[in-house]
Design brief:
- By secondary structure, the chain is an alpha+beta fold.
- The protein contains three helices and four strands.
- Strands 2-1-3-4 form a four-stranded mixed beta sheet, with helices on both faces.
């Protein structure tokens, strides 16, 4: 399963969101995927997830947060909850 982080180059919160998401992905054995909204491919992916602001994070096809920075423990809890539900 993928942990997708939607980012833009000039987003002030994106570097921290990427750092947090990478750690959570590593902890749970998820594939970390960074999606840049300032590319044609990123725009398409964002439209498919109804994402219009950064940073946004999705687990698979489910968006966990749009346009905000979650504390690491909150993101981890959201990921864990969905992984348990998927089992």
């Amino acid at each position: 399963m993928e942990l997708k982080v939607f980012v833009m180059e000039k987003c002030p919160k994106c570097p921290k969101a990427k750092e947090i998401a990478r750690r959570v992905a590593e902890k749970y054995g998820l594939e970390y995927v960074e999606i840049r909204l300032d590319t044609p491919e990123g725009e398409i992916e964002a439209l498919m997830h109804n994402v219009v602001s950064t940073p946004s994070i999705a687990l698979g096809d489910e968006v966990l947060v749009r346009g905000d920075l979650l504390p690491e423990e909150v993101l981890e809890a959201e990921v864990r909850r969905r992984l348990v539900r998927a089992d």
